[in-house]
């Protein structure tokens, strides 16, 4: 049985295609008013439905192209959609699915941009019919379900019934799932009662589908009765597929009931109908071949006409430009000629010299820029590739460190964690330095942060190197400094980690102090002085001239050697923050690195309420369920362990395609999604999730650096993000924010 048509009946009230060989008495010129053009379009549309009934598809394409161009001209989106729909359906009936898909997709894009639910639904039903031709039944059902969802919001009776019956027939006749079909048959009947439409009757469809369902369930008496009712309603259309299908079902029901005499009589009628159908199909096939030939001629005529108009317009514009350019050029040539008469020799020599120098400069500049681009891309890629395994190492080492059964290995695990953290800081340093040197804009964040917590985190991250050299690290903050400030805490942390790390590295059995003093305070901002003091080996005057340069601390002995990037990055980051690093030091007496920084005072509205302690009762997360989507199994495991520590149920998916299926069948409160995945990345997957679930919270996880990650997700319906590797507290704060 043929599935229910969508766009053709939908546009019946206003659409028509004029026969190809009939001349229209109405002409449209450049002087025609909008009202005249609309009247012309409506006349074409009123004739179109008859031509579609006659299967005159070449005429459909020709006159729809006329309507399409005129509708574009006057900005009439509805009639533009009608024209595209008729062209798409004409190609669909001639089995040219590629061209049909193009015009229907153009309608979908236009309707979505306008947020026009009516056109979106109509176009989606057209697209579903293409999937039907391709036997892609799951896509056919999915699109019709999307139509039903939108139609319910707008109480669109026709679309509710049409798509419900389409899905019912797919389940019943193609996928052999009668119980799934029954739900949609009943829904269509409810919609028909709730929103009656006197211009359209669906009784034949209901009787036919009820009969097929009854037959599938073995209720042959009920099937016979409903097939007979469907035949009565469809008998006026002798060649319809619906009538053939109804007679075939009626015959089968009679045979199952043992009514062989009646079945034989039904068979004779069916045989006659089938012969007529075969003749009709042969005629339609020949007509389709003729239409394909005619339609190619029509398309060529349209293209030739458009090309001709384009060439004429382009020539006119070109001639105008050439005329102006010729006059200007003539004046310039005269001036150049006079100039060369007086200073030809001198100018020629100078120009040749400048030309050579300019070519050398451009060549060197191009090579330099290309090298910079390659370097930037390489370092960005390698930093991401390093962050991903580091997330797994840091996360697993944290988890193992907390395992009481591994208490005898705490020293080794602490070494492992420090090594991973050291590598992470090094990656961040290289990435920051590369951004600054490549001329990329370093955007300073303005977020509330707790200064005391920031310094304590630094202390914890440097704990291993502090113990290694048997040092003591103390922190002292001026009591007049507000608890919460506004600024770029990431870059401030990066500066202090480099300074404190160097101090710990060049000091043995000593003390390192991080001091923060208030210098100046106004209503909305304050100026602070940060100092990192040590009583280590100190720095000579000669070395002080070199250490702030790139690779500066490589002048030290191998005992203390590092990457040589730390102080150079500190210098450049402070410059971006309108500050500079200062140093006081003597050999054997230690060093004092200090700088001043202007920060804002956080308003009460900007200060978020403090997050609960990590030891908060897990009952706040009772019954919560999270889906983790990550193609890296180690990272999956780390994230899962973090989450399950708080009594939350966690499930995992290896890619976004698998996750989409899980989200359609299971209920989750929150999704943690990796950004870079095969098949579909996190941004594409998020958009697809939002097409059927607007409520679920989505948090992007990525090894991408924080500011770059924020820029990437901008414009997507994503609730939050977290840059890997992250701190347990940051993850916990997000869980409290979105699940409590």
Quickly describe the structure.
By secondary structure, the protein is of the alpha/beta class.
Throw out a few tags for this protein:
five-stranded parallel β-sheet, single chain, 740 residues, flat, transmembrane, seven-stranded mixed β-sheet
Overview of this structure, please?
Helix 3 packs antiparallel against helix 4 and helix 10 packs antiparallel against helix 11 (220-234). The two termini are 53 Å apart. The protein is α/β, with parallel strands linked by helices. 63% of the residues lie in helices and 10% in strands.
Please, what is the average pLDDT?
77
Outline: flat
Query: Over the alpha carbons, how many angstroms does the gyration radius reach?
Result: 38 Å
Low-confidence stretches: 1-25, 554-561
Number of helices: 24
The helical percent reads: 55-70%
The biggest beta sheet, please? 7 strands, mixed
Structural class: alpha/beta
Coiled coil: 288-317, 347-374
Organism: Zunongwangia pacifica
Domain Histidine kinase: 381-601
Enzyme class: transferase
Give a topology summary.
Elements (H helix, E strand, L loop, with lengths): L6 H4 L23 H20 L3 H18 L2 H17 L3 H18 L2 H17 L3 H18 L2 H18 L3 H17 L8 H14 L3 H15 L6 H17 L2 H142 L8 H28 L9 E4 H11 L1 H6 L3 E6 L6 E4 L1 H17 L5 E11 L3 E10 L6 H4 L21 H11 L5 E5 L3 E12 L23 E5 L3 H12 L4 E5 L2 H10 L4 E5 L7 H9 L6 E6 L3 H8 L6 E4 L4 H12 L1
Parallel strand pairs: 2-4, 8-9, 8-10, 10-11, 11-12
Antiparallel strand pairs: 1-3, 3-7, 4-5, 5-7, 6-7
Helix pairs in contact: 2-3, 3-4, 3-13, 4-5, 4-6, 5-6, 6-7, 7-8, 8-9, 8-10, 9-10, 10-11, 10-12, 11-12, 12-13, 13-14, 13-20, 14-19, 17-19, 21-22
């Amino acid at each position: 049985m043929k599935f229910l048509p969508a766009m053709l009946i939908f546009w019946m009230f206003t659409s028509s295609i004029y026969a190809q060989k009939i001349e229209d008495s109405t002409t449209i010129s450049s002087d025609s008013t909008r009202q005249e053009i609309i009247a012309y379009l409506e006349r074409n549309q009123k004739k179109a439905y008859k031509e579609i009934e006659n299967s005159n598809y070449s005429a459909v394409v020709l006159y729809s192209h006329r309507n399409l161009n005129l509708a574009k001209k006057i900005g009439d989106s509805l009639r533009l959609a009608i024209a595209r729909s008729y062209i798409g359906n004409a190609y669909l009936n001639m089995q040219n699915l590629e061209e049909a898909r193009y015009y229907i997709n153009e309608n979908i894009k236009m309707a979505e941009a306008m947020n026009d639910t009516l056109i979106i639904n109509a176009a989606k039903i057209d697209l579903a019919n293409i999937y039907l031709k391709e036997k892609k039944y799951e896509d056919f059902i999915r699109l019709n379900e999307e139509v039903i969802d939108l139609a319910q919001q707008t109480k669109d009776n026709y679309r509710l019934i049409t798509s419900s019956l389409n899905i019912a027939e797919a389940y019943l006749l193609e996928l052999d799932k009668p119980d799934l079909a029954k739900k949609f048959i009943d829904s269509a009947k409810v919609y028909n009662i709730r929103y009656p439409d006197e211009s359209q009757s669906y009784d034949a469809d209901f009787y036919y589908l009820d009969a097929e369902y009854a037959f599938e369930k073995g209720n042959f008496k009920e099937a016979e009765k409903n097939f007979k009712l469907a035949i009565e309603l469809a008998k006026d259309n002798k060649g319809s597929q619906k009538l053939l299908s109804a007679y075939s079902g009626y015959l089968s029901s009679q045979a199952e009931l043992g009514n062989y005499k009646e079945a034989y009589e039904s068979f004779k009628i069916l045989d006659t109908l089938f012969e007529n159908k075969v003749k009709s199909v042969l005629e339609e096939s020949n007509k389709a071949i003729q239409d394909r030939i005619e339609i190619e001629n029509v398309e060529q005529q349209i293209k030739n006409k458009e090309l001709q108009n384009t060439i004429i317009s382009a020539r006119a514009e070109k001639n105008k430009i050439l005329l102006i350019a010729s006059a200007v050029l003539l004046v310039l040539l005269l001036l150049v000629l006079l100039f060369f008469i007086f200073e030809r020799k001198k100018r020629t020599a100078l120009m040749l010299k400048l030309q050579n120098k300019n070519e050398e400069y451009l060549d060197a500049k191009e090579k330099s820029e290309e090298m910079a681009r390659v370097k930037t891309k390489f370092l960005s890629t390698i930093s991401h590739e390093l962050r991903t395994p580091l997330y797994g190492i840091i996360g697993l080492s944290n988890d193992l460190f907390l395992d009481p059964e591994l208490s005898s290995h705490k020293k080794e695990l602490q070494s492992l964690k420090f090594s991973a953290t050291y590598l992470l800081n090094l990656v961040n340093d290289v990435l920051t330095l590369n951004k600054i040197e490549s001329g990329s804009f370093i955007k300073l964040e303005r977020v509330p942060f707790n200064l005391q917590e920031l310094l304590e985190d630094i202390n914890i991250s440097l704990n291993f190197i502090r113990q290694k050299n048997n040092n003591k690290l103390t922190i002292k903050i001026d009591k007049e400094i507000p608890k919460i400030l506004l600024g770029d805490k990431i870059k401030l942390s990066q500066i202090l980690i480099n300074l404190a790390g160097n101090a710990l590295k060049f000091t043995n059995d000593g003390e390192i102090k991080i001091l923060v003093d208030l210098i100046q305070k106004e209503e909305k901002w304050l100026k602070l002085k940060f100092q990192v003091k040590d009583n280590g080996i100190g720095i000579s005057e000669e070395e002080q001239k070199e250490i702030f340069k790139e690779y500066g601390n490589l002048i030290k002995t191998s005992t203390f050697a590092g990457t040589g990037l730390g102080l150079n990055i500190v210098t450049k980051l402070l410059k971006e923050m309108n500050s500079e690093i200062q140093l006081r030091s003597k050999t054997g007496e230690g060093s004092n690195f200090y700088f001043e920084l202007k920060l804002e005072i956080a308003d009460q509205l900007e200060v978020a309420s403090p997050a609960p302690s990590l030891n908060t009762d897990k009952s706040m997360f009772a019954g919560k369920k999270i889906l983790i989507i990550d193609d890296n199994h180690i990272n999956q495991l780390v994230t899962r362990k973090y989450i399950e520590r708080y009594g939350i149920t966690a499930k995992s998916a290896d890619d976004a395609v698998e996750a989409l299926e899980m989200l359609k069948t299971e209920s989750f409160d929150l999704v943690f999604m990796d950004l870079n995945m095969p098949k579909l990345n996190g941004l594409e997957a998020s958009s697809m999730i939002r097409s059927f679930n607007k409520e679920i919270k989505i948090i992007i996880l990525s090894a991408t650096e924080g500011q770059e990650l924020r820029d990437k997700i901008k414009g997507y319906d994503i609730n939050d993000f977290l840059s890997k590797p992250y701190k347990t507290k940051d993850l916990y704060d997000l869980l409290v924010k979105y699940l409590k």
